[in-house]
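dumping the sequnces here before i forget
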Amino acid sequence: MKIIVPIKQVPEIAEVKIDPETKTLVRAGIPSILNPFDEFAVEEAVRIKEKFGEGEVIIITMGPPQAEDALKKCLAMGGDRAIHLSDRAFAGADTWATAYTIAQAIKTEEPYDLIICGKQAIDGDTAQVGPEIAEILGIPQITYALEVEVAENKKRIKVRRETDEGFEVVDCRLPALLTATKGLNEPRLPSLMAIMKAGKKEIKLVTAETLGGDPEQFGLPGSPTQVVEVFTPEQRSAGIKIDGTEDPEGAAKQLVEWLLKKGVI
Amino acid sequence: MLKINKDECTGCGLCVKVCPFDAMHLVGEKAQDDEKCTLCGACVKVCPVDAITIERKRVDPSKFKDFKGVWVWAEQIDGQLRNVGLELLGKGRELADKLGEPLCAVLLGHNVDEMPNILAQNGADIVYVSDQEILAHYTTDAYTDVISALILTEKPNIVLFGATSNGRDLGPRIAARLQLGLTADCTGLDIDDKRQLIQTRPAFGGNIMASILSPYTRPQMATVRPNVFKPPTDAAKKADIREVDIKVNKAAVRTKIVDTIIEMEEGALKVDEAEMVVTCGRGIKTPENIEVVGELATELNAALGGSRPIVDQGWMKHHQQVGQSGRTIAPQLYIACGVSGAIQHLVGMRTSDVIIAINNDPDAPIFTVADFSIVGDLFKVVPAIVKELRRVKAQK
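..and the predicted 3d for all of it:
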């Protein structure tokens, strides 16, 4: 089976701070990580390959040169090779332009059996690129996958997916695109050996010129949405704080009184 | 325009079968479209040899005036309209009035009965209804086909989707098919002085807000989080209910729902839809203790949720998890009991209107975002709050 996993390198949100003076995002010194939802996607792809004892897992990313670190992590987790779409021309892409660009790279790998994306990236949280890639490629999608079962003949897939009410079991023919959510698996921590071996795996660098497709659809110029303003929301600050260790009843009374006064209850 | 590569076409006829407009025919064993084609893309999707492609051009801004109306996808599930659709009608009314354009609801389902009337009562001027058995349950393919085709024929100016699981599955699919922009999870919508839709959304875990426009394409599309806007209160009126004549063929739906498992208990509230949410964190120590916090939720008629460790232990369901890897929510009242407040939790709830935190660690990070903090033992404080609430209620 040929499985393609598009991934993204994202800033560690937990480390993102706002400069209290300028009210802007402090980007310096923030570590970059592999998007956590993409770890589930890579893990699942590698597990499917391991289960069948054959196949290939190809990792694709679009991003600046340093995104190579995220690709290396995926290769250490068991990916076989990687494609790195890196060009200033890709910069500033919205979800549509991103999906279009990644889809062009996936087309160069046809025929493939399965594409697995993370449910969403934790920086933008849009959850749009996966479904958009599926539509551009003209294949069905199953989002929020929690359990994946590839049929023995490798022609169909059965997926348990999360819904707002519970679960749904969905069956469809391959090729298809899945998006992985938390609970699909426990991503492995690559061993030192695996990390060393990953260093020897191929990472193919692809630029706008070598990718193909319609260059007018790349990057900021190809994006139908445009960010016109970025601002810092009013930061929350701590309000009233009372000690209820000695007198929990008294504290409860104060809280309920406060809630009533605020008109919340 | 639609392009058919006659060399590739095998004349299988699948495109003829799935065309919702009866615009595809086999001529000399090759596919041929006619003037009824709306470029909905249903044929492109099913062609086994990829012989059909669509070339789309961006809308020329001088044609923007042809696109009229604010649309809201009114999601229904098992015969129940989701609240977010009504909330969007509330906001949509405001946008439509600013533009001087009609507010329209788009309803897909089967045996939708009273639902169009409910949508009318909530402010819709026009309700587009597609009632077919194949639409009884949401599927990506069927819903994308119908709504894409409807957008192409009716040319709305704005299309809004609730950012539910299905809304986030459907929106990007339609956007990609029609090569449109789509802004995810908006928390603010307005019309600017050039009559464009300003879409505001949080990014970087709520650290920054971005205002986004779709300057080159129409319709302008966005998904909107539940619970951000209020449903209209006084819109009781009659709408023009229009049956949509777009038929979906079985062959156009490539996924098959084999089983549906409803995990929500009857009457239970969802953390991302409820006005009030009470959550517990590691401080509850054992799964049995959830009941202590559950009682507070019941007393307030609030949804009960948990932080990541609680869900990871299997003490609560996935859909109850609040935080980055769970649900991002913004209820009117959020009460965190024994939640320390790791940043991944905070990004999921810090836009709530009012935040209350109860924790025995005076330095717990949750206190930095709480409007009212109580340092203390949750097993003593929470039951005391329940007692006090009951006392106050009895007095009223």
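The radius of gyration of chain B is 24 Å.
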